[in-house]
């Protein structure tokens, strides 16, 4: 699991979405707080202005997904794939990434303050 500053643990989750097929889904304006997403396929998903707060993403696929002005606040990503994903003007403040792959990830603008990448398995954001 991604280590946070001073050994602080990831926020606990309160609900779970497991093995969902959100391929190509439009997640615009959705809000999720303290949800564990496990094995969710978000390939080619799009969103504008979605907000994920203190969520955990484990073994999820964000391949070819497009996120615009979305927020992933204090989230934890473990074993996720971000192949050719695009983040435009997104906020990922305080999020942690462990054993994730980022091949051809594109990040434009946004706020990635206090993001941790301790277990990066391939190239980071370009």
Automatic annotation (TrEMBL):
Gene3D superfamilies: E3 ubiquitin-protein ligase SopA. SUPFAM superfamilies: Pentapeptide repeat-like (SSF141571). Residues 27-102 form the SV2A/B/C luminal domain. InterPro entries: LD_SV2. It comes from the Bacteria. Residues 1-22 are annotated as: Disordered. This is Pentapeptide repeat-containing protein. It comes from Blastococcus brunescens. The lineage of its organism: Bacteria, Bacillati, Actinomycetota, Actinomycetes, Geodermatophilales.
